[in-house]
Fold:
Amino acid sequence: MKRTAWSAPLVLCIATQATAQDTVVVTQWDQFAQSGITAAGPAMDELIATCKPALNGAEVLRTIAPSIGIRDSYRLAVSAGKTPDLAYTWPAASVLSGYARVGALAPLDDYYAQYGWDQVNAFYKGRNSYEGKTYGLPMEQDLMGVYYNKDLFKENGLAVPTTYAEFQALVEKLKADEIIPVAFGNRDRWPATNTFSLILGLTAGRELEEKVFFGDEPWTNPAFVQAAQTFQDWAKADIFPRGFNGVGYDEANALFLSGRAAMTITGTWVLQDMIRGAKFDLGVFMLPPIAEGVAPGTMWGEGSQWQLSAAATPAVRDAAAAYLDCLVSPESRQVWVQKGYTVPIGTTPAELAAWGADPVVQEFFTGGLATPDANFYDLHTTLPESMTQVLYPELQRLAGGEVTADEFLTTMQAAWVTAGANNERWIP
Structure:
């Protein structure tokens, strides 16, 4: 069960205390803990102190929420009209536009112009916009890749695959040697969405995805069917651990880090934990295209975005915007990279090398950012919330063999039509 602001206490970290009644206080929610998903707590701790002068006397009252739970907590806060002044939460795109639609967020266009936040390119800015206005400042980049145990590969004479056929052969060799090919757990339900998003992009390609998500192409098209069938085939072929639908995400990562699985397919949001936890030589590669004619690429997007409450006073908004400008400055980007294992938007592989980023961080982002024109969408952030609530259980059923690929996509198409009728779809 996901934690929310109401079902369990959030971890409070008061960075500074208001010392006078007329002091401007910015309440902040973020997900930067010391471990786990988005474990950039050391970077956030340092930057709160570094960026204090930018606040011009204002103070920050900070709350750390779990990375997964913060989404649900913020949704409840919007419903109750009790949002923090400043929040760093996910996802953007369809969910953020829903908050903007109901008037919960303040537009940031004037601050974009004032501070020149031009590191946010058109792709990311579109994902943080609604009806021509920008409501979010995305910060770090998320990518999906394959973490692998280099020592295990070397010991078993295995090579990093460069084609999908080679990946399939690799999987068969690992199974023959009684090694779990891919550590995967879907008890939390959201991990399958990421895995399927990656398979979908490597089967359908970005152009076809955009025809479905932003046009009239149905979910039941042949390429989407192939993607759904591929995901189900992986499950049937024992690529994943037995009982994976009852295994948690953290448990799956632990299975990989213990050396009992050769690979795990997940994102940059756990780089810090992977690097800290691996007792072997850790590597990353990009999964090759699955369908013929599809360009190499990977799933990408912003990890989360900073957003301002529409209820914040003008003084609070101005203080928060000045503080944000410090948090995304070139100097701060270096801190995020070095102490948070997080790569802010606009950071190049050359900068990662110059700043002494961990080699695994460099390997992941050099591979993932090499194909910007082909990189594709995360279903978590692209689909409206009503669709996600259908996708989670249906992917569990698909992976468990309870429905066919065609049945799965027919259900998704019906939910998609309903979301369109309710004006819930996000269009960049």
In short: The CA atoms of residues 123 and 152 lie 38 Å apart.
